[in-house]
Amino acid sequence: MIRESACAIFLAAVMAVAPTLGWADTAPPPNPATTAPASDPAPQTQSRFRLLMIEQAGCVYCRMWNNDLGPIYPKTPEGQIAPLERTDLHQPMPGGVTLTGGKAIYTPTFVLLDNGTEIARIEGYASEDFFWGLLGQALQKAGADLPSAAQ
Description:
By secondary structure, the protein is an alpha+beta fold. It has helices at 2-21, 32-35, 60-68, 77-81, 128-141; strands at 49-55, 84-88, 109-114, 117-123. Keywords: Signal.
């Protein structure tokens, strides 16, 4: 009972402050990748790699990633090598995606795909530095040709 009360108080405090930070307001705008019917095929790309972002409405950390990195990701070497695809946690996976690490539980979860098969996973989002470091390591391990400036 005490633990539940402490959690409720903490959650209330976070929710009271979060809107003033600018990243916990309303749900993100509709995204065609997350609102499209499950039968839609995955976007066709020239790259063998894709980065699948699994998100959900109301996810504060998804909002942080969208604000911090969403606009610049496609312009980065990593974004060119592994174009971003989005899906909702509560929807079926896009066609042609095989998760080897099981169903995602946390959001955001970033799944690096090689020809549609999971080869690495980043669960959560803490900061730009951690994200870029983990994604860079995963791409290098997979044999992606990252420029030295992105390493």
